[in-house]
Amino acid sequence: MSLIFFRSSDEAPTSQHVDVFLEGVTVIKATLLYEVEEKAGIPEGYAICLENIRQILLHVEGKAEAPVATASKDLAQEFDNDVFEAPAVPAVDEAALFKTLGENEKLFKIVLTLDVDIYLRGFDHFLFFKNLLHVSRIVASSWSVPACESLEAFEADRNVIKEVVIYCASEKMVEDIADVFAFLEEEEFAISLVMPAQKKDVVAETLAQTKPSLEEKTEVKESVKEEKNKPIAAQTKSFLKIDSLKLDELFDSIGELVIAQNYLGENDKIKAIRDAEVTKTIENLSKITKLIQNRVMSLRMIPIRDTFEKMKRVARDSSKKVNKPIRLVLEGEETEIDKTMVEALSDPLIHIIRNSIDHGIEASPADRIKAGKEEEGVVTLSAYHRGGNIIIEVRDDGRGINKQKVYQKALERGIINANDELSDAQIYNLIMQPGFSTADVISDISGRGVGLDVVRNAIEGVRGKVDVVSSEGLGSTFSIVLPLTLAIIDGMIVRLGDKIFIIPTLSILESFRPSQENVHIAGGKEEFVQLRTELLPIVRLNKTLELGGEMPHPWESTLVCIENQKGKFALLVDELVGRQQVVIKTLGEFFAQTEGVSGGAVMGNGEVALILNVEELY
Amino acid sequence: MCIDGDVLELDIEMDLEEVKALKEFVKDRLEYIEEISILRSKEGVPVTSSLFSLLFCMKKAKPSLKIPCIDEMSYDLESFGMMVWRAHE
Q1: Which of A30, A144, A527, A595 gives a 20 to 30 Å CA spacing to A198?
Q2: For residue B13, what is the nearest residue in chain A, using CA coordinates?
């Protein structure tokens, strides 16, 4: 009831009201969970929430009775005018408007709720009227009386007309009408097709015959009315709900198709057939396979919008808890991401945002003003594509990470040694070590022992990685780099003896063949290579995977520079074969615990190549 | 815009800047104005809704002011259709 009151009245809910409503949602969810799990009792906060709602209801009921007099439609009263007597409000009669329609014309209803700054943005109600004439014939319009205070306070460039309803007749489609309002914000306009009353009744009566109840008939009419008022997006798109298991099966089948296609393309016997038609057919098949693969992949992709929207509540709650004014800016909500990853992304994002608000943004607005910033802290959440990956960034304009403090903390906790030389990136990444916290005061929302290492583990669980960049005094950016999909990875194929392996390219920094003088041996055992200013440990793949075989000199082999949680290392392989997208196959329970290997892939020639788990190699 | 005795005549095609000037003009002269008449050419249509907001504001400031297009609560804008005013719901 209180929600209905705020929806239908001019009174804006206060921040406390919004808190109660949001708390209400949480309590309802918890109550449902109690029901599902058949738990006894009521969830925590239930009684307090109920009491808060009661208080709002008392407030609302008081208000709801009062406006009866002020809601009088008599303008004479409104203007306190004994001379001016406004006639009764002449409502636009939709039924009468239908009589004015031409043979193929439809009646459209456009509701404009333009913002106060509309004139400053270069728009005007009448500008839309003018543009509407290109696609329709304007029949009538209904204007809410401008809400002006006094002549002195009147500002010509501030819109005080809350709502304008335009009725226009056109043979065009709703999309053509919508084009006129393309530059407006979504919430500033709504277009619907008006149904003739007769048609509505026919629908209602037909349905009523099957269920001849008066109430149901009313309900049907209501639903037709609702249908009529639906925004255009809902009218033009249709959706089909599919069991995600079926999609997974389809995905697997496409994986098999890609493998079969690669096999066909690389088969020596087929290659030997020097026939233009065969070559052309295989090329054609390859293109179609690629097309199907892309289309099927896109089925699992959903916009990240919903996950981003959830973060508004997180930011709001966190902001209140630590008493810091925060503005959350969302960018790139339309970016599509694999559904499985969306589910896995939610918790890490919540944690990073809380962390940014709690630790990133300055302790008080006064500190921000002192630093020459706005009082309100800005946390920007953005998503975009870069180089075949999806990047999700959480950026704050706070105080940045104090490198020295992080370094000291890491030393104190024995995460690093005093003689360790760390780059800026390595120092920043220390904050994602288990149990690490630089916060002086442990707050309720972060720094509870469960640190950013949880974030890193969750992201790595979906084959992604987290990078931290910070500038002291200016803010920090957490970048989550994710592959486009979980089923296919972009891999570098390497050869070791007669075996081939795949390294996820996301972890590879570069590859090189060192000169003999850059290779050093410590204690007659440990091998290191000098790469520019860095000294990297050499990891021999055959030794790590206990494959045996020859032990060539590093300067006679290829070294692949890889970065994992612990830092950089050089993986020694015989040869780089090439880069290829491969379909990931699990190895089954028996091989699941094999160290250094995360999966397998069937190559074009039918051989199975193992996908290396770079976190376990060094 | 011109004053003919105590009738202020306004052109319906006034733009936003002209509405701003109109507000400045009427704020000290409202007590001398008895009627506001809107002049329209054959195909003249309003350019800004701000004009109507100002008219309502003037009406509120001086209820005895005659503004036919507002007093009647509806106004035929020809190609822009019939304009109907409704009080706050």
Answers
A1: A144
A2: A126
